[in-house]
Amino acid sequence: MISRSLLSLALGIGAVVALTAMPWHSAGAQAASRRVAFATHALARGAVLTADDFQVRDTTLHAPLDTAKVAPGWVTRRMIAAGEMLREPAVQPPDLVVANQPVEIEFRDKNVRLILLGTSTRSGALGERITVRTEQGKRIEAVVVAAGRVRID
To answer: What mean pLDDT value characterizes the chain?
Structure first.
């Protein structure tokens, strides 16, 4: 005769096995059709994407994936296989500011525009917040607005 504790343990294990055997998308996830970029051929790490490197097509996604708008000029951050979906962080916008390079630090307030010179402490893409060092050595947090240019609020 099986004891109650063994029976409840067996039922519990059976429930866990049954749940893990179910496909993940049948657990209530909503399928959504989106336009997604796919690699047309294998891409090396650090490759700058051209229009021939990817193809955009409609795809049904079963999970809420962030499929950013990939565009020519984006850079691969790792090797990409042919036919693989292109999404961040595997591909990202190009860095407009490079670490340890001179940058213009811009401050605007209504009719006043002030430009300082400084050095970036790390690389950053358009809209990304980075830290820059002024010529006097003060560290300032700024937003990348163009190649070699950042803006402080």
So the answer is: 80
